[in-house]
Amino acid sequence: MKEVRALLLAAGLGTRLRPLTHSCPKCLMPIGGRPLLEHWLCALYRNGITQALVNIHHHRTLVESFLARNQFQGWVYGVYEPQLLGTAGTLRQNREFFENEPVLLIHADNWCQCDFSEFLGFHSHRRPSGTSITMMTFRTSSPTACGIVEVDGKGVVQNFHEKIEDPPGNLANGAVYLLEPEVSSWIGERLFVKDFSTQVIPHFLGRIATWENQGIHRDIGMIHSLVAAQSDPQPVNCWDTADSWSRAFESHPVHHQLVGEIH
Question: Which end of the chain has a smaller Cβ tally under 10 Å, C or N?
Fold first, then answer.
């Protein structure tokens, strides 16, 4: 497989998590005592992805200090967005970073545990011919709160329903994608395209393969989901958890607020 470069969308305001997000961005919400973004970067590191870009907006200083840690030097880069560009706009703005390589596009405000090597391998070797995108999917118990996909016998997306009443099924878009360079080029040539779900996906219907995550997939954008994630099995960390940043973060008010929610 060609080199894959990752874009982690981590700039959201996290309005549904207030008051927790008054002092901490959603991407750094602790799960099992470690920031959500650290879990994502550990998954990339384990799977040999050596170039990753993280967009930054909310609580810029805190996210930049997190990314300045030794384990991220030379392969994880932050890019600040004074004005949010949208999920497709960020990709277009940073096209040069990807150098015509496949892009692993991650909405990094979700809590996800799966076999990423299988996901990468499926896209590279087993996705149906004629597809340019592989979408990670999962089975949801709340289909009206998700983007629901309809697929054909080969698992190729034929229809997509973004948070509608009475959706046709429970196979949900996990907002993790592998994109071939032609997708990035299409976005790059269309300045009006800002949102991946509502503008890119509809254009590529019939050319989107799906890979179902049989593990954990949660939208932790609501406090009850973030609290539930604390009881999920936790993967082994890739790095020392006792560095100075981690020790300082343990005393951050969000930890005490979250403990209060759990109890």
Answer: C
